[in-house]
Amino acid sequence: MPSTSARDWVTWDDGFLIHPLGLHLDPRRRAPLGFASDGFGDARARRLIATPETVRFLRRWRSAPSFLPSPYGRSFQLGQSELRLVPAGALPGAAQLEIRWRGATLLYARRILPEPEGLGGAAEAPRADVVLLDAPPAPAPQACARRADTVAAIRAWAERVAQRNGIPVLFAEPHAAAPALAARLGGGDLELRLHPTIYDRVRLCAASGADFRRAWQLRGAPHLGQLVLLPWGGRASGRAVERTSPSTGPRAGGREGGDGENGTGEAAARLLAALREGEGGEGAGAELRTAVVHDGAAALPGGFRPDEVFLLAFSAGVSELVAHVQRTGARETLLSPGTPTVVGSVLRELGIAVTSRLGPPDQLVLAGS
Q1: Total-model pTM
Q2: 265 in helix, strand or coil?
Q3: When you count CB atoms within 10 A of the terminal residue's CB, does the N or C end of the chain come out lower?
Q4: Which homologous superfamily is 3-139+316-368 in?
């Protein structure tokens, strides 16, 4: 089967759909059978194919589906096709899906991280004829450059704050960024204290083999000599603020979200206010100094102004996505509506055929290069 025939058997329906297999890839609405690429909780299906590590994450979000776990590298059959999960790098268990069918190899990717800076190792790039790319909004280029140096700068900032009798408070996206930072910032001179949302995520990562040292759950007011890590953005942060403030206990009356820009800023401001309300004991007289780890994909929301902003992304930027496709040797890519359009433009310039899907799910229109 020539690779260009993928246009005939792959469509977009709130996630890529492999028609001959009835397989939905990270479906955003309920589907009979789906593949979940990672533990962010995007995929919705009655049955979900995922790595055992991702299943562990998703059981915290999804109670209804049955899971079909498969470890990295183990081939299995679905209909007349052969499937295999390969590392994506963003989280422990994050995976790309390789599909071999009728002589062609298709590779599906959503969130990938080509550098081993996250907790999932580095993404692999197996050979493929066609790449399906359903990438989230691209982080700023600066957020993808010298990630290890940025982590070192965050550590240095926290140490400077502590040396001036302050308490460093770091906000980070709770799913991938915060656990990765907890792994790299723990074990230093500062005692790392984690918001319950992040602590829960760290425990899941540790159960999947990630290495964490000297990190504890935040209970009550922070003290001098501690580095506090709080959730920023993502569906967990708003819910976590209302469920359990680190210093005042359960709170009520909030939204079930935190995804919107205003919600994110308000959630951060409420968390910070709760910390300040609980100041006392060893932290009496200490000033809370704040920093946000931000991927730069969107402007910082209003309602909260941190002292420092560190641009750092634990997902691939545009140049990394393009390089990933190139490494597979693919002759064609199919891009989801949400994948940054500049990715397609660069791939076309490199001579790789690009197809984008336009319109609502029932309008299966293809615009090819």
Answers
A1: 0.85
A2: helix
A3: N
A4: Ribonuclease Z/Hydroxyacylglutathione hydrolase-like (3.60.15.10)
